[in-house]
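Thread amino acids onto this structure.
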C-alpha cells in the first residue's frame, strides 16, 4: 500500500520546502503546483484563476462538502468552485494511487482520509516567518515588517477559510494532524532530514 504524507502549512513557515525535502529524503513523489496545473488542464481554466479560486472561500451559505442539495438558485461562481474542487479530489486520489507521495496543501489531508495519510502541519512564530519571506522575496517588493506581517496573516486567513469551507474542520487544529512541526528553530533542511529518519526506521 502506498504511503501518503500530506503537508498543511502556515505561509512563511517553510512548509513547501519541508515537503519537497522530505520527499527527496524518502524517495517519494512530490506534488504541489502540479495539482493546480492539472486542474487547469482538465477544466480549461487558467492556472492563475484556479489558484485564485483554491485560495479563497466562495461567498456561499453552505460548505462545499454538503454538495448541491441545499441550494435553491444557480450560482455560477459557486458552481465553478465546486467543479474545481471535484477535479481537485479526483486528481489527488489518482496521485495517491500511483505511488507513495508527499502532497502539499490542497486539503489533501481531508480528501484522502480514506487512504490514512500521515498528516503534518508546519508552523513558525511571526519573526521567523517574516525573515523567511524576506529571504525568498518572491514578489521583489520592499515591505515594512508590519506590512509583511499583514500579508502573512491575510494569506493564512484565506487558507483557513478555504480549508474550513471545503472540509468543515478547523485549519491548524492539532487534533486533525499526526505531527505538528515548529520550524522557528533549526533549518528546514535539518528538520526534514530528521522527520525522514523517523519514517525510514518504522
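Threaded sequence (202 positions):
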Amino acid at each position: 500500500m502506498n504511503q501518503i504524507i500530506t503537508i498543511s502549512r502556515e505561509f512563511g513557515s517553510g512548509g513547501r520546502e519541508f515537503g519537497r525535502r522530505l520527499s527527496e529524503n524518502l524517495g517519494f513523489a512530490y506534488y504541489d503546483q502540479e495539482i493546480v496545473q492539472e486542474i487547469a488542464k482538465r477544466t480549461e481554466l487558467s492556472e492563475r484563476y484556479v489558484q485564485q479560486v483554491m485560495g479563497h472561500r466562495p461567498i456561499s451559505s453552505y460548505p462545499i462538502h454538503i454538495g448541491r442539495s441545499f441550494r435553491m438558485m444557480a450560482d455560477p461562481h459557486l458552481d465553478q468552485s465546486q467543479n474545481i474542487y471535484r477535479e481537485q479530489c479526483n486528481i489527488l486520489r489518482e496521485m495517491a494511487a500511483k505511488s507513495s507521495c508527499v502532497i502539499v496543501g490542497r486539503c489533501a489531508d481531508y480528501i484522502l482520509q480514506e487512504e490514512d495519510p500521515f498528516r503534518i502541519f508546519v508552523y513558525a512564530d511571526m519573526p521567523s516567518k517574516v525573515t523567511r519571506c524576506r529571504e525568498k522575496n518572491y514578489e521583489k517588493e520592499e515591505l515594512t515588517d508590519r506590512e509583511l506581517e499583514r500579508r502573512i496573516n491575510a494569506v493564512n486567513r484565506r487558507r483557513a477559510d478555504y480549508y474550513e469551507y471545503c472540509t468543515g474542520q478547523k485549519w491548524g487544529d492539532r487534533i486533525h494532524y499526526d505531527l505538528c512541526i515548529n520550524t522557528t528553530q533549526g533549518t528546514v533542511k535539518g528538520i526534514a532530514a530528521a522527520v525522514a529518519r523517523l519514517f525510514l526506521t518504522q
